[in-house]
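Please study the protein below:
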Amino acid sequence: ESNTAVNRPLPLWPYTSSDNVNRARNSEPGKMSVNLCMQFVDYAWRFATVPAQEIALRLWQNVAHGGAAAFSVNGTLEQQDMQAVEAARAVFRWLAEHERFYVGQANAAKVLLLGGAQRTGRSFSQSSYRGMFRLLSEEHIPFAVTDNMDWLGTRDFDLVIATDWAPAELTKYSGPVLIVSPRPPEFPVARVIRTWNDVQGYMRVRDPSAFPSLAQTKLLMLNGDYTETEGPGLALTLVPPSMIGPPEKIHIDQQDTTRPGIVRKGRVTWIPWDTAGLYYKHSLPAHAGLLRDVIDRMLPRGRQLRTNAHPLVEMTVMRQGERTLLHLINLSGHTQTAYFAPVPVRDIRVALAGSWKRAQAQRSVRDLPLRNGNEIVVPEVRDYELVVLE
């Protein structure tokens, strides 16, 4: 379920329904995901409702990832605060009128993100996973999530990404694998020298050509564990901690090393420090840029979807028989602990791998001209739009 609690650590996770449904549907593709959208704030306040816009966002995310629309209240629908009920009613009414597009959807993404270690009993870093989940969403890279290792190798993906833990089952997969974690993978990639704990240092960009997004960046923040492997590093290297004060002596003892900040061996790329977790916690453009460039370099056929959309427009690509469904969800109304009406986003250009003869926007009820068989412009997304490609 997607819920709240007054003592839950911040920040809020606005992708809660997307996370739950994506993971469930792609861990057990033969089953339906029913992710409950909880109306109340916390157990002690079961008749105090969360924001209406949060209710709507959860429901749109549920169906955009192939799950059921599911809304939960205590008692009857005659609540003492009707905001959540009315918000859900509007979404359910529209879905009822267009239910033919929401039956039998299957994720069509070409990137797979491993979703933790629930089935194995291993611990895993939620911040690392959420950082990568957020980055892929903001970059509009369609992806599926799974925590069921039995599915590895049974479906064609362009890239598999593991954060925090990289299980031995990844050897079943013959395509490119990206590991972002100071925890050594459970299969050989590079000889490990040692793991440094709680490093408050940097990573040095030594090869700017390898990281186009970091043209203005020479040092990336490192705060956390780092695993040193047999080197030397060529593209990215460790800068250990140095003096942070007094002001006139900041970093005068800073030293560069050749210890690798990224390791490449065959089909596997390993970033041996928690770049994704740092991005989740601090949202630094340098961490996003590094991950963006590494992922783009590893996609053998390039990105499945290219767009000029704002990072807060979430997109999913689903199959439904012969149709392809493009869902667009506007998250721009979320800020800190609040959910407001999203700001309309206009003139979104999308190029999606494939070829179609017809594209129709269902919310705005209009045909969208197709260019080159796979390029469209979505005139406006208020809260949600569904584009049907046939």
In short: The two ends are 33 Å apart (CA to CA).
